[in-house]
């Protein structure tokens, strides 16, 4: 039983980590959300909203929109 719980937690962590990495790569940011000054912050915000919407849609069968938002690394605004 203990091994099953650990495996479940690890799978959750892997899924969380994949979302973090995806968002950071697509938005060209670091884990804290810093964006290089030469990038257009308004465009990054727009892209963040678009990516979050896509993630919510893709995860609709597994997570509620609120659960998906909780996993997403950056706020919608």
Protein model, in words:
It is a single chain. By secondary structure, this protein is an all-alpha fold. The protein has one domain (2-71). Helix content is 66%, strand content 0%. The chain has three helices and no strands. The chain has helices at 2-27, 41-58, 65-71. The longest helix is centred in the first third of the chain and has 26 residues, at 2-27. The radius of gyration is 14 Å and the shape is globular. InterPro entries: Mito_inheritance_9.
SSE run: HHH
The DSSP helix count reads: 3
- What proportion strand? under 5%
Task: Tell me the number of structural domains.
Answer: 1
Distance between the termini: 42 Å
Question: What is the SS-derived class?
Answer: mainly alpha
Mean pLDDT: 90
Shape designation: globular
> How does the major sheet shape up?
none
By DSSP, the count of extended strands is 0
Helix content: 55-70%
Poorly predicted regions are: none
Q: Please compute the radius of gyration using only Cα atoms.
A: 14 Å
